[in-house]
């Protein structure tokens, strides 16, 4: 264990422990995510779940900056350093001719839209800003790197040492190095370590290295182009060059005896109106595939219907089969080979065996002429001859290239993702996932990269090329181009795919940057065994089995494994699946405790940890709380930042949008309390947390209900992890096997504490006296309407509200459950259902909604009043509450509430007029 030095900021809380501008950070993170290929690290190589660089930068600065007795100034300094205030946004503007007056007239959204990414901001450029920053912090800095170093010395007695033991795609160590920190990074996975190393080698290159790497990359592309041109496998007799080859699988339809080409759609290009048409060749029992350019509307519509619909084979009509039948593909596949199913492919299988169920067929080539014109054409015998030549050339090089590691020889290991490959095609080696042309082209790149003057730096280029050139690349008819393999987490075999010509692979070139960065120490290591001391550990652990990193990364490792020992002699070349921290349950929890206990041991007493994770389940929070508790850590703050766009990996509104930043300190000596004392403290802490956040709104911060709800989780975790609880052993509770639905004591405590926020999350415009007396589902319903009025329709938001209000039957109140269209039922949609049963049964709100429905249906408020008088017990004592509820519901400004809102206003007026 390392000891703390006594320094000016050694005992002072950090800014991130008191405030964090999550709304602005969410907007900046979203902007960075939506930049696509404009994101700095994505151009280096594929990784899953990289955190935005702006979030990492904010985390480091937030951990170093002090929280003083002037929180407004604290936030002002932080936002000035980040370039997120008005001054910074003006400096970040892309239209430099824009005057300050023109800029000030823009909306905040327009200002952000017209700004460069926050991660590219180099800090304030004027003396006035740095005077304001230095006066507040007691520093003498004029760059971000200088202020980071000086704050590190003031807090830790040294330039801040930052570490990440789950480096993944390298966002955390890369940004820490750019800010001037002494940075250590490690990962169990060699693909992750290579990306982390390459980020700095390519994006923080010296001018001399940049020149060398750029020249080497240019030479590689020229050599590949020269060789392929010399072979003559991409040029036709007219001198045109192919840049895309469209392939499909074919299967034998046992009922007709025809070989049927497979595709979900036969539209080739929407923009150019190109389609493929299947024409029966009765003599040969197959289909000719014609390519039609300038297709009519009718042809475009017909081409949308593929020969595979919902995993069913739908053959096109023939003379003998005018009425196409449908057959499940799985049944055909399983019956193949006398019921043996698909044959397992061998390492040297480059094309299907004649007896294989799935055959492969080239059906269209896109040609580019000397003027750049594109033409889609059906396949000719000459095209097939060029494919045969590519296969022959590959055969000549096959053994040598496999021995040298220029093409994969690795078998595919068993696993969840691999299971889909085995079931779909029974490919057993990574080389099986590529056509001969792709293996030849990608192998040629690999061979030339190894001969270049930058074999180490350009190794990741090979990964980029293979992500964009395999049988898993779907043809995008809307964009008229191939997708990449990992536009999702899956490695699923597909029926029709695209092969890029070598020229089209030129857009995969890596852009190097000459930039001063402090070096990163990168290693391959089990996080449980890391022995490096750090002041600040920032980690993004693989939580709750979200992504099978170690399995899907083997796609890339199959192309790297024989090159790594030569280039990185100290590295191993497998993903160490058995050691991976992943999954759920006791083994995962045990591993997490070991990891974070180790990191706690290797930080000073005043050191900090920031754990990033993406989850919205209170049970996961409870497990995480116990993990940190058992690891000797206490939670000092927690924040959630929206880091994912709605079109995330799986898409849909249930996709988790936010990243939680958990800020942790060493526990030290703690007091033991009973759980009722803990609950009281949690409620007090949660209430204080909410009040503090509301005070900070005066400093320009804005909080959503989700932020406030999460704040109560954070408050609960602060109390739980800062004490021992009588009768609760966190390690034992974590490793306990529970029955389905059984909750841990900590889980129950967190849920109870979260209800503090729910009591204070009152809808705008509602009388507090009404809110105080409402039940759980009444509160959920009225708060849900408030949420709808703000344009929020993600089910995850409603789910969080339900947890906070303990509204267990909330789904029964929904009127629409479609992704991103979630909303509650209106009064009329409820009808007479659930008056006596259901989550609102017997409540005043349910009777009011029923009266509104009657009034809207009958057009007579008297009938609604009659319902209330007859059904609501002691209605004369409920009159004021009824009128106030009607007043609130009558203000609903939603299209689907127009009729019911009008009925609520009419009913309220009638009640008041008769003096009920």
From TrEMBL:
<protein>
    <submittedName>
        <fullName>DNA methylase</fullName>
    </submittedName>
</protein>
<feature type="domain" description="DUF1156">
    <location>
        <begin position="20"/>
        <end position="80"/>
    </location>
</feature>
<dbReference type="GO" id="GO:0032259">
    <property type="term" value="P:methylation"/>
</dbReference>
<keyword id="KW-0489">Methyltransferase</keyword>
<dbReference type="InterPro" id="IPR009537">
    <property type="entry name" value="DUF1156"/>
</dbReference>
<dbReference type="InterPro" id="IPR049953">
    <property type="entry name" value="Antiphage_assoc"/>
</dbReference>
<dbReference type="InterPro" id="IPR029063">
    <property type="entry name" value="SAM-dependent_MTases_sf"/>
</dbReference>
<keyword id="KW-0808">Transferase</keyword>
<dbReference type="Pfam" id="PF06634">
    <property type="entry name" value="DUF1156"/>
</dbReference>
<dbReference type="GO" id="GO:0008168">
    <property type="term" value="F:methyltransferase activity"/>
</dbReference>
